[in-house]
Amino acid sequence: MTATELYTKGARIWLPDPELVWRGAELLQDYKGEPCTLRVQYEEAEAPSQISMHLHRKIERKDTESEIQVKDKTSLPHLRNPEILIGENDLTSLSYLNEPEVLYNLKVRFAERNIIYTYCGIVLVAINPYEQLDIYNNDIIQAYSGQDMGAMDPHIYAVAEEAYKRMSRFEQNQSIIVSGESGAGKTVSAKFAMRYFAMVGGSQAETQVEKKVLASNPIMEAIGNAKTTRNDNSSRFGKYIEISFNRSNEIVGAHMRTYLLEKSRVVYQTKDERNYHVFYQLCASAALPELKKFSLMGADKFFYTSQGKNISIDGVDDAEDYQSLKDAMKLLGFQEKDIAMIFQIFAGILHFGNVKINAKDGESSEMAEGQDQGCFVHPKDPSIGVACRLFGVDESQMRTWICNKKITTVGETLTKPLTKAQAMFAQDALSKFIYSKLFDWIVTQINKALHSQTKTHRFIGVLDIYGFETFQKNSFEQFCINYANEKLQQIFNMHVFKLEQEEYVKEAIEWSFIDYYDNQPCIDLIEAKLGILDLLDEECKVPNGSDSNWCQKLYGKHMKHSHFQKPKIGMDTFIINHFADQVTYTSAGFLDKNRDAVSEEHVNIMKASEFELVGELFVDLTEDTGKGRVQALQTGPRGSSKQMKKTVGSQFRESLTLLMETLNSTSPHYIRCIKPNDLKASFVFEPKRAVEQLRACGVLETIRISAAGFPSRWTYPEFFQRYRVLALSRDINRKDFKKSCTVVLPKLIQDVDKYRFGKTKIFFRAGQVAYLEKLRADKLRACGIMIQKHVRGWQMKNKYKRLRTAALGVQRYGRGKLARRYAQYLRETRAATTIQKHWRGYKTRRTFHSVQHAVVKIQAAVRGFFGRRAFQKRLYEYKTRVIQSRVRTFLARKQFQKVLYGIVKVQGHFRRRKAKEELRLLKIEARSMENIKNVNKGLENKIIQLQQQLDSRKKENQDVVEKQNSAIKALEAEKDRLLISSTEGQKASNRLAELENELRQLRAELERERGEKQDLVSEKEILRQKYEQDVGVLKAENSSMKEELDAANRKLQEQMKISATTGGNEKWEEQRRMLIAEMESERQHHQRLVKEHNRLLQRFENMQGEMQMLTSPTKGHKRTPSDISQLSMESVASSVSPDQKEEEEKDDQGYGTEKKKRQAPTPPTAAAMEKQMKEAKPSPLATDSIPEKEDAEKTLPPADIDVALILKLQRLVKSLEKERDTIRKKFEALEEQAKEGTGFGDSAFKSLKENAYFSLSMQELENENDKLKREVAKLMESIAKTTNFNKGAKSTPAGKEFLARKLSMRRKPDKQEEEAAKTFHDQFEAMTDELERRREECLQLRSLLAERSISTHAVAKQSYGGQDEMVNEDNELTMAYKSQRDIIRLLEQQLQKTEKELKSRTSEYEAELQDLRRENDKQNKLIQHSLSLTSEAKIEATMQHEITRLTSENLDLREKVDQQEEQIRKLKKMLKVYAKRLKEGEAAEIQAELEKEETKSVENVAHIRHRERNYMGMLEYKKEEETPVVKALILELKPKVATCLLPGLPAYLLFMCVRHTDFINDDEKVRSFLTSTINGIKKVVKKHHDDVERVTLWLANTCRFLHTLKQYSGEKQFQTENTPRQNEHCLRNFDLSEYRQVFSDLAVWIYQTLIKNMEATIQPSIVPAVLEHEAIAGLTGSKPSGLRGRSSSRAEDTPEYSLDSLMKSMNLFLRVLTQHAVDPELIKQIFRQVYYFLGASALNNLLLRKDMCNWSKGMQIRYNLSHMEQWLRDNKLQESGAGSSLEPIIQASQLLQARKTDSDVDSVCDMCSKLTVPQIVKILNLYTPVDEFEERVPISFIRKIQQKLKERESTDTSLLMDLKFSYSVTFPFNPSSIALETIEVPEQLNIAKLVVRC
């Protein structure tokens, strides 16, 4: 292929342009191969005038045609690549590799498609967009994580992922080198790279090192970044951060190295630039309290921050950045004092810069006599004082040595004044030195914070360093920067060359050495022996060395060097030829900057600082002179100076050498940042600025090296797939693609040097792929022309036939139309005549009727007028008579009322006078003392009478007790007599008369009791009737509401019918959709909460496991605490007592194991808490002595501490402890009774609980007790009201009013208080005696009822015909006596228990009385203390006490409200249960059963029970067998075993166990069993979370158990499909509705676990199956790209995935779900979620892959998705909504296939309804044609699409779909038809010995 073949007419070329750098053109004639002039035509699209708007240039329009001179082949212009190659992700994949193509490709991607990242071989080119882009969020990180570098679009995350994978897979250290000029975005790129590592390498430990690594960025930006003319946040130093990883590839630490801080910026900034950010942050936050002591002002007030005349940055809040800086320092472990000291030193530098140095003048009045000329600081200058105070140094010494210097000679030391310039230089040198030292100290502290104790395995380094710089004036800083870039470029060139050669060797192709630019000579010029740096250091050692002398030495030494030049003009500059450009350096200032000199006197002053940190910054300067960076100013001869310190240049050379060694030991990755324009305009590309940076950063060198070899590389199958159209059929061997390619390619390209055959690839020289594309396009064009020829001929034939047929049809129809028109005319004429006839008749009749109607109407009107007038006259006369009668009546009534009013008034005056007279007499009588005495005497008599009554009642109670004891003793004696001999029965017959009397008395009492019982029955009947009435009312209301609802429904249906005709259906349908969407959102929110709850529980469990592992003394058995009980017991926490909780915590569930108890600290008791509170803030009321009035105000508690509230809370704590002790005592008493085996047995307890009379008696006693308590409260209130407390009180009116109110409520004088206490105590004892007497009477009645008997004579007379000897024939009396004896013992035990309870209550009441007394004493002291205060203190105390009282009352009220709410909740629950049972008719059955059992207990008759033959569907188990049952049914059940059993069998068996606990009514047992079940399910799911079958098994069984709980709950809504037998098996005692919610949440958690497992299984198959699979033969989406095999980190053993593997996974999921009988509705929901994840993953990958966005790929993707849709239809899942979840990716594939012209804008927008605006625009921007016949998407079309999409109401602007989104899951009720009694326990479950079927 020669030049004449390529440079033909129409060939597209590049021509140089002075403004645009390169300009596109087209040849207008062929090149003949000899020197000639070629005519070209510039492309209009590239005209300069079109870009001048963006670049603000003024370029004249050039001619569209021009001529170029071609001397030989080497001067031919560069050829352009085909359009299909433009916009490639990798610049090296272009066919023609040259500078204009690189520049144009970057411009197209950046300016037109807004893509900022592009690959160039191993380099990632990043162009600064000057705009915030949403391409760095966590979703993007997740999308790039784990992906190969070449599989996704270029991104900095792809480079970071490549480095991370190479480190983890190949165990190699990595480096990412980020370079570029200021403003190109280096710092941001490095920050995003570190963010990626922190995200993918984040550990689960609590240290969170990755957060500290990211937190170092704000600190380094504050102290090392500044605003420049090119960048608002320019890094003025270089840094290399090593991020350390452990063997698990988790971040464990980091280390930072810094290079060449720009210290000159501290003291000088050019126009529109700023100093370092930290200074402006301090000035912006000067008003903060912690910064006020620094005396800071605005930034414009300080010299060091105001030189640039621009102290602000648009969009930056310095005050907010100051807070971020502080937070970052705290996160990294900086102490508060160190942070304050750092800011203090920065503030001191600002004030030190404001010190003004004045030159001394002989005539100056400020100069003292005898002083030499020099400089001085004004005595009144405030800045130097503030600076010295902040630095902690002596101000006088600083004033002295800032203007003088010390000269040391051989024998003496002299002081010499400095000039003003010298002093200012020394001042700036000290400021720079302090800042530099503080910068290094902060970096050291950051490294300490980031250092890890864990051993580092590998690291990834991120180098953020300045790029090549060249300015109008280049100094020492630019020299060092360019020196560093020379070293980096050398490593870069060697690395690129190495990779190229390795690729050729790997493929075993012949290659020749590639020449590349070697910059070693330039490096030797700088760093070799006697190089520029050596000569600079040597000149620095010379006492009188200068910049000009050093420059002359350079001229003399290096004039012959190829990289060194001397400028034509000037003797203080020199030129170095760097790899990027020639740079002219100005030698002025080189020596001073290299020395970095600071005065020794200044160092000594700073070392003596009173602040430790300031002295620490200077302490190392004299300890090791060989390591310091700073030397003293040269003030004497060379021999007298100290040993020279290292210069800045030598230090930078050493650190650079160390950096190069580090980079050489790692695998480098390069990121080159490009600044597109100098105006900081977003997405504006300036070619001149871009090409300068591309040349400087080595991108073009990479292109040159690639172009020198074989840049284009194709695998054999891909080459054959692309270019088989150029081959003949006989040359094709489909079984061996390599053989086919070796046969076809030599026929296409005759020059064998243009390509090479490798092992797996074909290598092409530059331009060969473009040539092959040209041949392919020509061949396809020829085929297209042939196809068009035949198609057009066929179209013209068909067109002629259609025209002829149409002409004949037109003629036929035309003639017929004329005939029809004439016939129509005849018909219309006849019709017109008929119409005229009828119209004239109609008009005449209408006129007659109108006249007739008018006459009739006039007659009616006249007659009506006369009739109305007569009626009005009669009506007037009637109304007149009525008015006259009413007026006369009114006048008579008014006269009567006036007379009556006078009479009443006279009576009132008379009676008032009599009442006043009587009132006066009563007042006189009331004032008399005799009346008061009489009243008091009456009260005293009344009290004495009450006391006597109480004494008499007490005596009566004692008599009754004695009588009872004597009666018991008599009965015992009688028992002994009966046991001695049987003759005692004959003697007992003589006492029949007495026993008959007693019997009559007992019968009378029995009748009375029956009457009371009858009253209760009647009361119950009344309540029942009331309940029936209420039920009737509710039913009536229900029926009325149903009628209203039916009426509303009918009305609604009518409205819907009406609205259906008017288009209202759409409105109702919209409302219905809104309601459904709202319900779905609520459900999703609930399930997200459940998911988040489970995630937090899992995290808590992991943390506890780690803590246990860390704190465990041995490495033996480790137990992970389960968190299931926390989920399961939340709903039933109210029903669990503290004792039960303690018992449950003893189980090995992870909450209260003995190991945990030993580790956990003992919680403090209430007494300890109270003691701590008292020690923390002792109350002034706690002391016995009251302070004097002058000290009263000092001893008052402060207003912000509420002492009374603290005491109130202490009392609450005490009361809670008292309740706890009471409960513990009760529990211990029950345990003692259980151990002793005495007391009430089970039968006794049941008989007592079921005895109605005993319950009524106890209720009556409790009511009586409440009544007595209320009487005591009333008595105390009456005593308080009748007592006066205001004697002798002297206070202010406000104090009197408050004290009167307080004292009237709480206080009494001492005597009256004792009397009241005594009265209260007496009344309490009286009530106690009364209560005891009542209870004894009750017990006596019970004993009498128990001892009732019938005399033997009466029995004989009634049953045996009067034969007494037959009564005791079988010793019946002895048996009766034994039964009576047992009853007596029972009652005695009950009496003893009652006495114990009474004594305990008495002690409690006495303790409460003592507490009241102590509280009374405290209040008395408080009152006395208040009376002794001043008026102001009294008012303050009054307000404080009032607030305290209100607080305490509020607390009491809150407690009462809580108690009432709890009581109401319990009552409602009980009422619900009772109403439910009453409704079902169970109340009567329960009552009958109780009466039956009561009869059995009284008669003591045994019954024989028959065992039922039919099973009841229950499984009985023992409490100790609970754990083995759960273990066998849940933990050890394998899926293979479960598939052989009845589906859902474990759930049925678990519920049968629950039914048995309900049957025996054991709430503790059911609670324990359900908790163990939940724990077991969660444990097995957590342990086997990656096993799809195991998780599916327990999802199915959990749902079945949930449905069973509903089905047998007894609720009507769940019983519609139950059989009568199933209704009999419903739960009767327990309401497990709360547990249903717990199991529902558990099912949601298992569902989410299953979904995660399925998603993880199919994730590797999604992209190969949906995007990459090409099932349509002959349709390929591959492009003629280089395919250079970017990802070298690909694992060799990675399995291959395809559409078949994805379908196999889906079939596996469906099979497992079906085997375990998962509900069909739940299966639909599962696949809906899985399909959403599939579609979202595919779409996200598509949006990040440019190679997938073309028409062919769109067709292939749609075909692949059709397989997924067909799978849904085959498995009858099309109605699950899974297909709709694929709509986004389907619409994306349709968008790739759709036409993209301006007329298709509306159709495209309508078609992409499920895609967001950014997704549509992204796909259109990524769309790339595969063939020449396809067209790119015009920019105008994309703009119109964006404009049209703005009309959408959707606010979703996300680019990627949320992979974590989950639909809300529901569990529709699915009852089972299986009867529980038919279920048998299989042997495979191994629980036959643990449970019993019943």
How does this structure look, described?
The structure is a single chain. The chain is α+β, with helices and mostly antiparallel strands and 1894 residues long. The protein is 61% helix and 7% strand. It has 60 helices and 26 strands. The strands form 8 sheets. A 7-stranded mixed sheet has the order 6-7-21-8-17-11-12, with helices on both faces. Strand 1 (12-17) and strand 2 form a beta hairpin. Helix 7 crosses helix 9 (318-331) and helix 52 (1633-1668) crosses helix 55. The longest helix has 160 residues, at 768-927. It is extended. About 13% of the residues have low confidence.
Oligomer, anyone? single chain
Summed up, the helix count is 60
Question: Structural class, from helix and strand content?
Answer: alpha+beta
Tell the overall outline: extended
Distance between the termini: 96 Å
Helix content: 55-70%
Flag low-confidence runs: 45-62, 362-372, 621-643, 1112-1205, 1234-1257, 1282-1309, 1346-1352, 1481-1486, 1489-1509, 1680-1688
Number-wise, the strands total 26
Overall residue-averaged pLDDT value: 76
Strand order of the largest sheet: 6-7-21-8-17-11-12
Largest sheet geometry = 7 strands, mixed
Summarize the helices and strands and which ones pair or pack.
Blueprint: H1 3-6, E1 12-17, E2 21-27, E3 36-42, H2 48-55, E4 65-70, E5 78-79, H3 99-112, E6 117-120, E7 123-127, H4 138-144, H5 156-170, E8 174-179, H6 186-200, H7 209-224, E9 225-226, E10 234-235, E11 238-245, E12 251-259, H8 277-284, H9 318-331, H10 336-353, E13 357-359, E14 375-377, H11 382-391, H12 395-401, E15 404-408, E16 413-417, H13 420-450, E17 458-464, H14 476-507, H15 520-527, H16 532-541, H17 547-558, E18 564-565, E19 573-577, E20 582-586, H18 590-595, H19 600-607, H20 612-618, H21 620-623, H22 648-664, E21 667-674, H23 687-697, H24 699-708, E22 712-715, H25 716-723, H26 737-748, E23 755-757, E24 761-764, H27 768-927, H28 929-980, H29 984-989, H30 992-1061, H31 1065-1111, H32 1124-1128, H33 1138-1145, H34 1154-1159, H35 1166-1176, H36 1192-1195, H37 1203-1236, H38 1242-1250, H39 1252-1281, H40 1293-1306, H41 1310-1347, H42 1352-1359, H43 1372-1427, H44 1431-1479, H45 1482-1499, E25 1515-1517, H46 1522-1531, H47 1535-1539, H48 1545-1559, H49 1563-1583, H50 1588-1607, H51 1620-1624, H52 1633-1668, H53 1699-1715, H54 1720-1743, H55 1751-1770, ...
Parallel strand pairs: 7-21, 8-17, 8-21
Antiparallel strand pairs: 1-2, 1-5, 2-3, 3-4, 6-7, 9-10, 11-12, 11-17, 13-14, 15-16, 18-19, 19-20, 22-24, 23-24, 25-26
